[in-house]
Design a protein that fits this description.
342 residues; binds uridine-5'-diphosphate; 17% strand; binds magnesium ion; disordered C terminus; alpha/beta; two-stranded antiparallel sheet; elongated; single chain
Length: 342
């Protein structure tokens, strides 16, 4: 367990907890998830608590199951997005609509055990603003574990912000942290990094990460690559600085070798043989140039996305109890279209 700063005792004991769950084609997990999350909420004093599901454009029966759950339990609200916007956008939609004093982000596939939440709350009551889970063990395939391990370490070494190792989005945030994260207008969101950036008192809790309950991972290679690049490029300018360094090295190389060639020709009286060396140098240097052009392109692409400032998500409808002033968009409440009052 990592303590970043000493705790303060939180005065407020009447806690209202929000649990936010992004859902993308999780029909097989939802019944078990609902049962376990509701059982956990039943045991937490205070309230009223809420469970906010964000249906991220599911094409299976997830929305149907969630709507039925909503009918039977007033604590449940479902925000349905107009299409699949991705995990981080779905989490952002949830953060824009939660109302609790503390908010827990939880994956739907039960890889984040809901029972851990009571442990998070203990730390919250001690005065921590962020309580996040680090993966004590992972049950993914060995190559995915190696990739995650390399990625987190690379990212931590590149980043100026302290980014915790092996931490996902699973964790608890106090209301003031949620408000700070919401103030960040970034399009390419890497929430666990933004949460870290906010600061205050943060603590890591090691949690066993079981295998997904059922169904397939919704993070294919492309989504995983996007998340990884967001995690690196949103928190570091070091790749750009590396380009400057490599450029300086190449200039050094480019001046010494021609100097040697002139010296060899006029002083040693021999023309250096070097077609192979030339081909090698050309391909190497062009490779380096193109590589760094790609890196510059990553930043330029991100600037372009930020300038466009499109909304992170579009809401189709909301089923449940959210009041209009909690929403930034127009939406339907129980089938009626409502206009938000700002
Ligand atoms: N998810 C989502 N939109 C997406 C992909 C995933 O809302 O486009 C949700 C998914 O339903 C799950 C969570 O994000 O609740 C994490 O996804 P997953 O478990 O597939 O990722 P993994 O654990 O394999 O990295
Ligand atoms: Mg998962």
């Amino acid at each position: 367990m990592v303590h970043i700063q000493g705790p303060i005792q939180r005065v407020n004991s009447e806690l209202r907890l929000s649990i936010a769950v992004p859902v993308y084609n999780e029909e097989s997990v939802l019944p078990e998830l609902l049962a376990r999350v509701c059982a956990v909420l039943d045991r937490i004093p205070g309230g009223p608590h809420e469970i906010l599901f964000v249906n991220d454009g599911s094409s299976d029966r997830s929305m149907h199951i969630l709507e039925r759950a909503c009918d039977g339990d007033s604590r449940i609200t479902v925000i349905s997005l107009s299409r699949n916007f991705g995990h981080q956008a779905a989490l952002s939609a949830a953060l824009d609509h939660v109302s609790g004093d503390a908010v827990v982000l939880l994956d739907a596939d039960l890889q984040d055990p809901p029972e851990t939440i009571s442990n998070f709350i203990d730390f919250f009551k001690e005065g921590y603003d962020v309580v996040y889970a680090t993966r004590a063990t992972r049950k993914e395939s060995w190559w995915l574990r190696v990739c995650y391990g390399v990625f987190y370490r690379l990212q931590a070494s590149l980043s100026a912000t302290h980014l915790p190792l092996d931490a996902g989005d699973f964790g608890l945030m106090s209301r003031r942290v949620v408000e700070e994260v919401r103030r960040m207008p970034e399009q390419h969101r890497y929430l666990r990094g933004l949460r870290s950036w906010v600061g205050f008192r943060q603590v890591a809790v090691p949690v066993e990460r079981p295998q997904r309950h059922s169904g397939q991972s919704k993070y294919g290679f492309i989504k995983l690559r996007k998340l990884a690049t967001d995690g690196i490029f949103a928190f570091s300018l070091l790749p750009l600085r590396a380009a400057t360094l490599m450029g300086a090295l190449a200039v050094g190389l480019a001046t010494t070798y021609p100097d040697y060639s002139v010296y060899a020709k006029f002083v040693l009286n021999r023309v250096p043989q070097g077609f192979t060396a030339l081909v090698f140098m050309l391909t190497f240097l062009f490779g380096v140039v193109l590589f760094f052009l790609g890196i510059v392109g990553e930043y330029v692409g991100r600037i372009y996305e930020e300038i466009k400032s499109r909304p992170l998500y579009v809401i189709d409808r909301i089923v449940g109890r959210i009041s209009p002033d909690q929403s930034n968009t127009s939406y339907e409440v129980d089938g009626r279209r409502a206009t938000p009052q700002k």
